[in-house]
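During the no-cost extension, the postdoctoral fellow (Dr. R.K.) reprocessed legacy sequence entries with the updated structure-token encoder. One reprocessed record is reproduced below for audit purposes.
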Amino acid sequence: MGHLREKMKADLELKRFAPTTEREYVLRASHFAAHFRRSPEQMGEREVREFLLHLVKVKRVRPATHRMYVAALKFLYVTTLRRPREVENIPWPKVPRTLPDILSGEEVRALLEAVKSIKHRAILMVAYGGGLRIQEACSLQATEIDSKRMLIHIHHGK
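Re-encoded structure tokens follow.
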């Protein structure tokens, strides 16, 4: 999948996908090619369906993982190979939406008090108070916190 991998990477970059999404899509496409030991250029809808059924029935992947494979293969065929008809009938899997566990005020207080470092406690307080994801908290800069207006500017968040 050498030249095709490079073309897919370039297409993902041109569409400005996040670097982690780029890596995941290329990895999922390479799993597909490795499963059949052929280039995706030589395969079509039948192989895509067979591979996805293998993931669901044999590998028993979670719905979110299944969805990632579908997204990667649709991108590969629609954008990189310019063969959208091959995947137009591939259904998107349902992914159950679960609500996160909500900590009580006492649990939050105990968690924050357990952190001895003032710096780490401040990071946790900002992340929790702002509802930030880990990557958003890690990439946050001091200039992005507007304490006068009580705002946090998140760039490239979900």
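Helices lie at 2-14, 19-36, 45-57, 63-80, 105-114, 118-130, 134-138. The two ends are 31 Å apart (CA to CA). The remaining legacy entries will be reprocessed before the final report is submitted.
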